[in-house]
Amino acid sequence: MTPRGGRLQTDLKFPAAEGDIVYFYLTDGSYGVYTYELGSWTAEPVIDQIESFWVWKTTPTNWVQTFKGP
User: Fold this and answer.
1) What is the C-alpha separation between 70 and 52, in angstroms, rounded?
2) How far apart (Å, rounded) are the C-alpha atoms in residues 36 and 49?
3) Residue 53: CB atoms within 10 Å
4) In whole angstroms, what is the distance from residue 44 CA to residue 13 CA?
């Protein structure tokens, strides 16, 4: 993956599925949690270029991104 930021599904084309959970490590030592339920996010996660996160997927899938050169 190349470092890119944006809304996880809308901008980064993450293949969300019912029940997926995204976790962010926050600076205070806690975790931010976003859940994909009833066809949408509780609030769509926004990923910064240097931010780490992990996903608990309900079903295996590929996350494919296409890049165009100059």
Assistant:
1) 28
2) 22
3) 15
4) 12
Which residue(s) pair with 35 in the sheet?
21
**What are the extents of the domains in the chain?**
17-56
Tell me how far apart the alpha carbons of residues 19 and 59 are, in angstroms, rounded to a whole number.
9
Q: How far apart are the first and last CA of the chain?
A: 18
Retrieve residue 42's tokens: 């509780």
pLDDT tens by residue, the chain, 70 residues: 567 889 999 999 999 999 999 999 888 989 999 999 999 998 999 988 888 899 999 999 999 887 776 6
